[in-house]
Amino acid sequence: MDAYHRHTVTHADHPVAAPLSDRAVEVVLDRTVPRDGTVRLLDLGCGEAVWLRRALAARPGATAVGVDLDEPGLAVGRRAAEREGVADRLRLVREDAALHVSDRPADTVLCVGATHAFGGLPPALEAAHGHLADGGTVVVGEGFWEREPEGAALDALGCGPDAYDDLPGTVRRVTDGGWVPVYGHVSTVEEWDDYEWSWTGSLARWALDHPDHPSAAEAAATAREHRDAWLGGYRGTLGFLTLALRRAR
């Protein structure tokens, strides 16, 4: 019987585990990772290492380390890296990203959609700084309120209104911490919709294709509940910001 792992199923059609299009990911990488020369990347909370694999594919001089607690996701990343011919330059480590100790600084440190592993945005940036080479760049992805959250959105997300700031407030938290934004991408409604329809659709399709699996009912219910929470709760309220940051001198 096929193994069931929710994260790998929900991201089957949208492997970037954040509401960014493939083009947006490419642009962010081009702004933050040189294509020539030797460069080292570190992804804290890498999931299936999609960001790292795409960076390595276009940068033959680059090497990368990805850290995540999700072993099935890391296994997917390792298999994909073998197929894509970048496995010899990618090391994936099962570890709490907040506890990771680098053997040498990285030129680019990524933490996209994983700041919760550190307790929020400021501590995530502080941790990233500890891994960063002088003059290096941090790529961080974080939620923000597109508009004042109402009860339905807060209930759907299971959080309070202070869980996020608005867009100016989010950027201010970054700059107050001594960081300078050198690029940014605000996810569009289209990117959010594609991400959420892919997340819920992949899971619903899996449940339909595996009706006799012990997890089929749970998968179908999760897809339905997530879709309802998104459409009836936080769609148009929760935004997502990806920033490229350098330290102020």
UniProtKB/TrEMBL annotation:
One of its GO terms (biological process) is methylation. This is Class I SAM-dependent methyltransferase. It comes from the Bacteria. One of its GO terms (molecular function) is methyltransferase activity. Gene3D superfamilies: Vaccinia Virus protein VP39. Residues 42-137 form the Methyltransferase type domain. Keywords: Methyltransferase, Transferase. The lineage of its organism: Bacteria, Bacillati, Actinomycetota, Actinomycetes, Kitasatosporales. It holds the Pfam family Methyltransf_12.
